[in-house]
Amino acid sequence: MSVREKIQNFESLTLIPEAAFSKNSLGRKIREDDDEIRTCYMLDRDRIIQSKSFRRLKHKTQVYIKTFGDHYRTRLTHTLEVSQVARNIGVGIGLNENLIEAIALGHDLGHVAFAHNGEEVLNEYLKDGFRHNEQSVRVVTKLENNGLGLNLTEEVINGILNHSGLGTIKDIITLEGIVVKYSDKMAYLNHDIDDSIRAGLLSIEQIPKEIVKVLGDNSNQRLNTLIKDFVKTSNENLMNGIRVVGLSKEINEAMIELRQFMFKNIYLGDTLKVERNKAKFILEQLIKHFEENPNQMPEIYLRIAENEDLQRAVADYIAGMSDDYCLSLFNKIFVPKVVID
User: Fold this and answer.
1) CA 65 – CA 54 distance, rounded (Å)
2) Cα–Cα distance measured from residue 122 to residue 104, given in angstroms and rounded to the nearest whole number
3) Which residues form the HD domain (predicted)?
4) N or C: which end of the chain has fewer CB within 10 A?
5) pLDDT score at 116
6) Cα three-residue angle 219-106-325, rounded to 5 degrees
7) What does the alpha-carbon distance between residue 69 and residue 71 come to, in Å, rounded to a whole number?
8) Domain-located, residue 339
């Protein structure tokens, strides 16, 4: 018996019947031989961590553009916090932790530089629009590994595709994917409040008192409330034969209200408007430059331009850039250099 088979047997002993068992995976688009040690979801997790797109997350903005403080979140630390929250929930319910981790680590690979500002620019640029969850799937299926993709399992790809927003969960094929969808919101709401307070742009007193009363007045309290409620509510549903995981009505409504508060006051508020406009200007100039000079893009994007179209290729190239790389490229292309005779 291989190590992988032992792990799969352990899954059958420890996970709830509604969990996604690795031995029953829907598989990959291109069939592969089983790994001797790792289950399919463990292999997916490792491929994501080893990808270039994952490494670039460390220099992609979460909310605050080009913040030099060491303690502000980046897209990478956000991803790790989502994984932490989701795994805690998954273990509490009895779901497949390896599948949860793979989805969580891959969910934001398609995010653009300069936080949601970059997404807005590309959404206006592409004729069919741009959504970072769809771009994350494009990264793992078409862009990574020099265009070959990572050949991930269907369950991981589905979880990545459907993680965004607070809308319907009917298209998510695993409970693990639903856990990551909720955990994404739990993580970013809490750490973005922390970062906003650290930046002096928000005070705890500004958060509506009815939300504080339900969720708590600091990050630890809020996360504890959300995680414990999710586990408790989900376990009660499952024990009663209801295949639903999620938050109780009261806690879910409080989280939605907190999300609306953050969008109004921080994400889309006037506080960061000047910096958002600067970021959009940089991205718009780079898009225009590479549309006019496509041969300056790497070979993989020239192939995309040939096989799909130039607009798609430019969008893929821009979407993969980190904040630092965008700034460096902008300076190289547009900022005059000092010439000494």
Assistant:
1) 19
2) 23
3) 75-189
4) C
5) 82
6) 90
7) 6
8) no
Residue type, 50: Q
Count the domains in the chain: 1
CATH number at residue 292: 1.10.3210.10
* Residue whose tokens read 């463990």: 42
End-to-end CA separation in angstroms for the chain? 74
CB 38 within 8 A of CB 46: yes
275: pLDDT strictly greater than 90 = no
For 251, the domain range is 3-334
Considering the entire predicted model, what is its pTM?
0.95
User: Any idea which of 18-22, 108-112, 194-198 has the lowest mean pLDDT?
Assistant: 194-198
Closest CA to 314 of 87, 122, 33: 122
Indicate the residue type of 281: F
pLDDT tens profile 212-238: 999 998 989 999 999 999 999 999 999
The answer to the question of residue 50 being in a domain is yes
74 three-state secondary structure: strand
Residue 147 region, left (φ>0) first, then alpha (ψ -120 to 50), else beta?
left
